[in-house]
Amino acid sequence: MGLWDIVKSLFSGGDAPIQIAGTARNATTGDNSELDQSSFGKVKGDVIIDKSKGATDAITGEQGRIEQMGVGEFHGPVELHKHQGLGGEDVAEIMKPILELSRAERKELVDKNRELTRENESLQRDLAAAIQRTEEAEDQGEPQAKDALEALRENADPKRLLEYLVKLRDAGQADVLELNREIAAVAYLTGQIDSAESALKAILSINPDDADAINRMGWILFLRGAFDEAEKAFIRVLEIAGVRNDEEGQAIAYGNLGVIYQNHGNLDKAEQMHRKSLEISERLGRQMGMAADYGNLAVIYQTRGELDKAEQMHRKSLEIFERLGRQKGIAANYGNLGNIYRIRGDLDKAERMHRKSLEISKRFGLQEGMANQYGNLGVIYGICKELDKAEEMFFESLGINERLGRQVGMANAYGNLGNIYKIRGELDKAEKMHRKALEINERLGKQEGTANQYGNLGLIYRKRGDLDKAEQMHRKSLEINERLGRQEGMANQYVNLGSIYKQRGDLDKAREFWTKARDIYAEMGARPKADKLQGWLDKLGELEKKQSDGG
């Protein structure tokens, strides 16, 4: 097997049909409700069993009593699409032409000036330099260079190549600036964040206007949850691109800023940024940028409850990524489509999408994608009351996010584990998890995650019988969701507030909130939830009639 074959299999999946992800949000959530989840079918191993059969009603039918089920905020992460983001998705496309060049042609490529103009050109140049340097050392009989290349050929292991480059830099055996560029490229695209960050800082200490290094540093800051600092980095990239009249650089910066604003919950500003990026990408015929922007706009529509529009955008994004053979984009869109199907109540289709996404992420070592899809499958198991399996999935997600230092993912996992403990009746343990999730979300300025955890804490207080404190939490959650225009979150809290008023005996107020929730679910296309609410409202009417009849 040749070096190209190893690199291809390592970074792009070999001969398999090949967003850069973020939902990267990775991101906006898909909430899940206990409204229609009392008894779905079981999932065993990789076999998907129809969950639409045998579901029991959440209304007991006993003496007209309505079961007081809350709407839990299981957090199904979506993946936002990063422009020139972090991860190994682009390496095969970058490396193949490098390895097919003659040494003279490769030297010409290495000697090119570094610009952000053509997507990934600077990464291509830096990776070419790393390969050229290591091959030349191998020709001279350098044992560690030979070992590094053999590790790629035989074990598909890039770590030795990175270790070799770091050793050269630390020994002062070559141009430190150039070695840091090569180290940053290899580390960045293989997800070794600490090494990439260290090299990028060294580059920027020498050249603070290196747009490519600033852009990559912005994504590392994003991954670590330093959203304000990431925003500053992308704004700086936009400024540099403007000075250079670099339209593609501007498109990249606009798209990345859109992801930042989505994470802050500023959907209008995020949409504005993505549409600016899309307009430039369409004019330039920049397919990767178009796919990323379509996917990110889809997440905005999903948050607003416009599920049909969101699905349309995800499918446009998916079509481009499939045509380009970009596995990370394909996986991200499968996962995001799974969230839409889950919201609609089609759990079989949702699970199939999440499993397809997870399989791709596992095959190509896409760690962030794996963490997201473990979390999404955990949500499915949680809905189906497969609590042990759900807990296992959430811990898998948490472990990956902790290794990556991905704060948002850790918060999601803590919140989801809190829901598992809450269902089991371990309320103290549940509260601890929700408060950990809340602390992270508040520190990062993640409004959507903050709203989720207020709602979850409200359910805990309600289970303890503290209805006043529960109402306070649900109203905090509702206020944030209303400010964000997040339809599903609003509906969830209307359900919870209605249940509190029902428990207090205020049937008029309960009807008011449940009617609002039903109407939102129906408008979103979340038909099972809307139907369930209608059943609750019908039972409420029976209770009201009995009361008026003196029964």
Explained architecture:
- By secondary structure, the protein is an all-alpha fold.
- It has a domain at 84-285: Serine Threonine Protein Phosphatase 5, Tetratricopeptide repeat, CATH 1.25.40.10.
- Helices cover 73% and strands 1% of the residues.
- It has 25 helices and 2 strands.
- It has a two-stranded antiparallel sheet with strand order 1-2.
- Helix 12 (267-284) packs antiparallel against helix 13.
- The model is unreliable at 1-73, 85-94 and 115-119 (pLDDT under 50).
Secondary-structure topology with pairs:
Layout: H1 3-12, E1 29-32, E2 74-77, H2 91-100, H3 103-110, H4 121-139, H5 143-155, H6 159-170, H7 176-189, H8 193-206, H9 211-223, H10 227-243, H11 247-264, H12 267-284, H13 287-303, H14 307-324, H15 327-344, H16 347-363, H17 367-383, H18 387-404, H19 407-424, H20 427-444, H21 447-463, H22 467-484, H23 487-504, H24 507-524, H25 527-548
Antiparallel strand pairs: 1-2
